[in-house]
Each structure stands twice: as C-alpha cells, then as structure tokens.
Amino acid sequence: MSAAAGADRAVAHQAGLRRGLLGLGSNVGARRDHLQAAVQELPAAGVQVLACSSTYDTDPVGEVLDQPSFLNACVLIATALEPLKLLDAAKAIEARLGRREGVRHGPRSIDIDVLLLGELTLSHPRMTLPHEQLLSRRFVLVPALELDGELRAGAPGAPRLADALAALDVTEGVRWAGPPLTRPAPSPRG
Length: 190
Hints:
six-stranded antiparallel sheet, two-stranded antiparallel ribbon, alpha+beta, globular, 5 helices, single chain, 28% helix, Alpha-Beta Plaits
C-alpha cells in the first residue's frame, strides 16, 4: 500500500468511516470518461475517494462474450454509508451517468460494483459482501492489488486477494490501458 493510501486509511479509521473497495467498468462510448465521471460523483454521495487504480482494458467475461472490451478500474473509498445505502448510491450514480438496464453482463456505459466494505459480510437478495465474484475475476483483482497488495476478502482471516489472483488462469485478458483515474479535489470541509 502506498504511504498516501496508508495515511488515508488512518484518517478514515479516526473518522469512524469504513474503508471499502469499488469496481468500475465501461465498454460503451468514452470508457475512461465514464469511469472518471463516476469517481467525480462519489463525494456528493457520501463516499470519500482514497485512491484510484490505473485503468485496464479487459476481455468480456460472463454470459455475453460477443461485445466490446471493457475498461476497468478500482477505487479505495471511505464512507459512513451502510452496505445497501452504498449500493443505492452506486446505482443512482449509474443512472445519472446514463446507464440503462439491459442484458445481464451485456454492454454498459458504467458499472459500479461494491466489492468490499470494511470487514462486513452480507448475504442479501440485493447484494453480497464481499462481492460474490471478487476472488474469481482478474479484471478486479489486478487493479485492486495495485491499490493495496495486502487486501483481504473481508475479516483478517479471510482469503488474501493476492493469493486468489495467483490461483487464476492467466489467459483472462487484462491489459494496462492508462494511468490512474484522478481523485476528486477534497471538499472545503476536509
């Protein structure tokens, strides 16, 4: 973990916020612009952006393989929002940025997934924490580990993301595509 991310982790802990991880993806239109717009929207939703990963061009996975490649990134966050409220905030940002419902795993202008939220575990019809596919997707693990090589899938005894990445087939296409997304400027409140 970078010194800046470590300092932000300490600030988040002192403020009583939970540290989390979001996954971003886009494969329609100006992909990087869509990811950056999502990052810029997070503070207004009560989500502090601690660090942003580089962007990665990735092959589609899941139910729809015949579609353009995705641009993916991860964002370390701090928030006081509870899991379902954070999911609602992510879905509201997606809607504001023009995401329309379509085929599951199909093309989309923006996708925001809540991957981790502190050490919380949750099994709810609307979401699972840690995200149910967190440990099986290279396009999530590579940018997540760029941000923090010590991340675990929840509590201290949970699997390390680095171990999960090492166990995956290296043929799932994940290619570095560009520098980190830009963190929003801090608000005047701090």
